[in-house]
Amino acid sequence: MRSDKDKQTSLQEAVKTYLPNGSSMSFGGLGARDPFAVLYEIIRQGAKDLTLMTTSIMDIGNILIGAGCVRKVEGAYVWIGSVGSGLNYRRAVEKGVPVKIEIEEYSNYSASLRFLAASMNIPFMATKSLIGSDIPKYNDKIKLIDDPFTNEPVALVSAASPDVVFIHVQKADTAGNGQIWGILMNDPTLARAAKKVVLTCEEIVSTREIRKLPNLTAIPAYCVDAVVEIPFCSHPMWTAGYYWCDLPFRRNFMLYNKTQEGFEKWLKEWVLDIKDWNAFLNKIGKDRLEKLAKMERDNYNIPVLAYEGGAKR
After folding, report:
1. Is the peptide bond before 236 cis (omega within 30 degrees of 0)?
2. Lower CB count within 10 Å: N or C terminus of the chain?
């Protein structure tokens, strides 16, 4: 169990410390709270031979694969969502571009069960959801047995414990008590399944502030190894209560992503030639970021607690 000490560090140091080449890793979020700032830093540090463990993953996985950082994917699928397909993933699997990757395929549900097993420190989970599908035919790590109680067939999937998971939340204290508004995805389970957890947040707040709404602490400090404050960490995705999705940015990415050459041009402009996340935000522009924040405030605000007499704390 991790301590309640101050775990703040820099993004550069967190990636360097917790993600050596050859690691297995995962990301929190999906279509919201995806930690893009972490992704870009991983690519800038030249990570290699990673095993990406996921249920499903969107832009962030597609970009990591296109940058040549991934050797293997364990999960259901990689795609972009409403604006396009995961073309980097397709090129890597079908053509070995930029590097050939191995895939270990599961359904969304059975991939989630693998993290659940690891979070409970048990070696596998049983499920009937894979029975009748072709997935066990193409993944010999899924074992089919007869249920010892009913003699009906069941599938077994092994526990999945990534070496490190990077999870982005709205608020955290310095010890790593992270609070999430909006969708949780598998993040609470992932935090308990991974060997190491790096928590990024939109803002560091006091532990007193965290304790006002303790039921929102989805990622407790005892799971967390490092904390990094990174405003707009999920751009161009959403973070509930902070900023809206930058759909034009994602659509523009898809124009480049049609070919590997186009993707590499985009990667050079937006990641490799950018010093760090602050420089990236400067390139996006203050006005654009403020507009995304306003769009989100028009849609949703994180409630502010008020007490008797109307005084806010």
Report:
1. yes
2. N
Query: CA triplet 75, 167, 32: central angle to 5 degrees?
Result: 75
Cβ(200)–Cβ(167) below 8 Å: yes
The residue-averaged pLDDT of 297-308 equals 79
Going by their DSSP bridges, the two strands 143-146 and 102-105 should be labelled as unpaired
Query: Between the CA of residue 298 and those of 153, 238, 240, what are the distances in Å?
Result: 51, 14, 11
Q: Which two tokens stand for residue 9?
A: 């560090």
Which stretch of DSSP H or E encloses residue 76?
none
**Contacts of 149 by beta carbon, 8 Å cutoff, 6+ apart:** none
Q: Give pLDDT, residue 306.
A: 67
Q: What is the CA radius of gyration of the chain?
A: 20
Interhelix angle 260-267/87-95, rounded to 10 degrees, is 130
> Does position 203 have pLDDT exceeding 60, yes or no?
yes
Tokens in use for 33? Answer: 């709270």
Q: Is the pLDDT of residue 99 over 60?
A: yes
The burial class, CB within 10 Å (0-12 / 13-18 / 19+), for 273 is exposed
Question: Which pLDDT belongs to residue 313?
Answer: 45
Among the listed residues 48, 46, 45, 77, the one whose alpha carbon sits nearest the alpha carbon of residue 62: 77
Q: How confident is the model at residue 305 (pLDDT cuts 50, 70, 90)?
A: confident
Q: Is the pLDDT of residue 140 over 90?
A: yes
The Cα 88–Cα 100 span in angstroms is 11
Number of residues in the chain: 313
